[in-house]
Amino acid sequence: MLMRDPILYRIKKAHHHRTGNKWCIYPMYDFAHGQSDSIENITHSICTMEFIPHRELYDWLIEKLEIYPSHQYEFARRNVNYTITSKRKLLQLVTEKHVEAWDDPRMPTISGLRRRGYPASSIRNFCDRIGIGKRENLVDIGLLEFFVREDLNKTAHRVMAVLDPIQLTISNYPESQTENLLVENNPEDETSEHREVPFTNKLWIEREDFKEEMEKKWFRLAPGAMVRLKGAYIIKCIDFKKDAHGNVSEIICEYIPESKSGNDISGIHVKGTIHWVSQIHAASAEVRLYDRLFKVENPASEEGDFLEYINPNSLQIISKAFIEPSLVNAQLGQAFQFIRKGYFVLDKKSTSHKLIFNRTVTLKDNWVKVQGK
């Protein structure tokens, strides 16, 4: 039907916001498509399946105009679940301020993926795995995240950051002493070096690593329990303090001097290892925890406005986390694994006065578990 009486251009004698009154002829997409590709010497003009009926006119115009023979190829759109790829809807998300901009780390744009810290190689591996086809398909975003983790596991430096801090005091460690401990950057990389991390008697640890009462199969801190501090010593909890509101404000521990990481101690075995940051050496940073933009698998197919299905928890901002001092020198594009927390990258809006880290991906795919709850 398209070849029966195709519309090639429109004539409109009106003022144009860009060219003024210079032109009155405006080519239609079908007329301009092949010529634009030909001018740029495009060999493969890749389109989605709805362009199949237009290919005959595309080829006919190139043949009759005797120009460079670009060729149109059609493939099914590769949709990813829990997001959208429609440019119109993505534009709406930006213009209505549901996201920060086109490079918001929740956006399925190249700039968004880059800002979130997705390595280019992981995106290419993802595309190779899912392949191309002529049938519409909805790809699990968990597969993309798998390739991201696989890539970052080999390259990211392991560092320590405490996102929900509580004070830990080692009562029998000298108060005025600072000890520089060697911690490996990446155990998966044989060429990776070690870095120095300062250790003192007052540390920040994660609040979730302590319980007021010991429980079965609990391998972290509780009264009487022992754990190893990553790259440091084995400690034993002997007491804790509460504030005026009844919340635990400080954990009191003792350390075993001969238990320094790398030393074998007979008769002492601990199952848990937790991360930490020295209080007086810690730097502060804003940490942004990004998750999936939509709370339903295919927002484009749901009834009503797709905006109703935006995940309200797609961004959680931790305004003041504590990070080890080495992260002050973090560079844009450099990947880090915050031990036990996930993979992170420095945000482009970071300054020397305010460090901002974006979560690229969690250590494990816990979306199904969260949805179940």
Structure description:
This protein has 373 residues and is an alpha/beta fold. The chain folds into 4 domains: 9-74, HUPs (Rossmann fold), CATH 3.40.50; 78-157, Glutamyl-trna Synthetase, Domain 2 (Glutamyl-tRNA Synthetase, domain 2); 165-275, Beta Barrel (Ribosomal Protein L25, Chain P), CATH 2.40.240; 283-372, Ribosomal Protein L25, Chain P (Beta Barrel), CATH 2.40.240.10. Helix content is 19%, strand content 28%. The chain has helices at 29-39, 55-65, 87-95, 110-116, 120-130, 141-155, 367-372, and strands at 9-11, 25-27, 44-47, 71-74, 78-80, 137-139, 157-159, 161-162, 165-170, 179-184, 194-199, 202-206, 226-229, 234-242, 248-255, 273-274, 277-278, 283-290, 315-323, 335-338, 342-346, 355-361. Helix 1 (29-39) crosses helix 2 and helix 5 (120-130) packs across helix 6. It is elongated and about 90 Å long. The model has no long low-confidence stretch (mean pLDDT 94).
Parts with pLDDT < 50 across at least 5 consecutive residues: none
Q: Kindly report the spatial arrangement of strands forming the biggest sheet.
A: 7-20-21-22-18-19-8
Known CATH architecture of the largest domain: Beta Barrel
Largest sheet: 7 strands, mixed
Helical content, roughly? Answer: 10-25%
CATH class of the largest domain: Mainly Beta
